[in-house]
Design a protein that fits this description.
With about 300 residues, the chain is mainly alpha-helical. The chain is about 75% helix and about 5% strand. Helix 1 packs antiparallel against helix 9. The protein is globular and about 60 Å long. InterPro entries: ABC_transp_permease (IPR001851), BCAA_transport_permease (IPR052157).
């Protein structure tokens, strides 16, 4: 029974961490799938989303805590956080990436610009809010749910996992069943021919950044609710890990990014459960490197050919 409890608890913890990675990795893969751009500022957009959620939640608690429940406040804070974080992503696209795209800049310069944008977000946060950490307000009470007397899970962990799955299903439906999703796939196939077909290229690109950055904001709020200590550099490491998860899953493929995030989490939590936590990243990334050795395009990626 103890072994069964340990295994089930390991699965639940891995699903929670995998949900964070998956939500961030989806943003990477969306932008890459449409623009072939690695948006290295995406991890810091996640950080900005967490801070936006902090200020929105604090404001809502101050104004409405007397007559609205905690879950109602969460339901109000999530869309506001996603919208404002999406505005941050769209601003980056408009100010930093679009001028380079119009001038036909080499992809290397775009990558350098993305790294610069991430540093601006980090150090801008540091300059505006200071280096001191902030504690995310307790919007909802943590409730421990006992599942059959075998394993326990908190209401926040359950919400994180369910939200990640629903987000993936929603995004998959948008990309495969809607007109804007078809336009996104058309841009990823041939962005030069798309304007000739009457599809507004910039509109599709902006919508892609809205989706990716919005989901990063959602991940930021869920992460802040689960681990309520915020600091300006919190998005750097988790952003890099989510990027690696997207690459291992097959960057450009939504399903690959989603599964890659959970795969990385299962490896990390598994290593930390049997070895000192300092070995977690070493073994996790070594295993992911071996996967890329066997399949360089990632688990669900497809090698692209260029016609000359």
């Amino acid at each position: 029974m103890d072994l069964l409890q340990s295994i089930l608890q390991y699965i639940i913890n891995s699903l929670q961490w995998g949900s964070f990675y998956a939500l961030i990795a989806i943003g990477y893969t969306l932008v890459y799938g449409v623009l072939l751009l690695i948006n290295f500022a995406h991890g810091d957009v996640f950080m900005v989303g967490a801070y936006i959620a902090f200020f929105i939640s604090s404001l809502l608690l101050a104004e409405f805590s007397g007559f609205l429940s905690g879950w109602t406040l969460v339901a109000m804070a999530i869309p506001l956080t996603m919208i404002l974080t999406a505005c941050v992503g769209v601003t980056l696209e408009r100010v930093a990436y679009r001028p380079l795209r119009r001038k036909g800049a080499h992809r290397l310069y775009v990558v350098i610009t993305a790294l610069m944008c991430g540093l601006i977000l980090e150090n801008g946060n540091l300059a505006l809010l200071g280096a001191s950490r902030k504690k995310f307000p307790d919007i909802v009470d943590t409730v421990v749910i006992n599942l059959g007397g075998v394993v326990t899970i908190t209401n926040l962990k359950l919400m994180v996992i369910i939200t990640a799955v629903l987000t993936f299903l929603l995004l998959n439906w948008i990309v495969t069943k809607t007109k804007i999703g078809m336009a996104m796939r058309a841009v990823s196939f041939d962005k030069f021919a798309v304007p000739l077909m009457g599809i507004p290229l910039n509109t599709v690109i902006v919508f892609t950044f809205v989706l990716g950055s919005g989901f990063a904001g959602l991940a930021g709020m869920l992460f802040a609710m689960s681990y309520p200590i915020l600091e300006p550099y919190m998005g750097a490491l988790i952003g890099w890990k989510a990027f690696i998860a997207a690459v291992v899953g097959g960057i450009g493929d939504i399903r690959g990014a989603f599964i890659g995030g959970f795969l990385l989490a299962f490896i990390e939590i598994g290593v930390a459960s049997v070895l000192p936590s300092s070995y977690r990243d070493l073994f996790a990334f070594s295993i992911l490197l071996m996967i890329l050795w066997v399949k360089p395009t990632g688990l669900f990626g497809v090698a692209k050919t260029t016609k000359i």
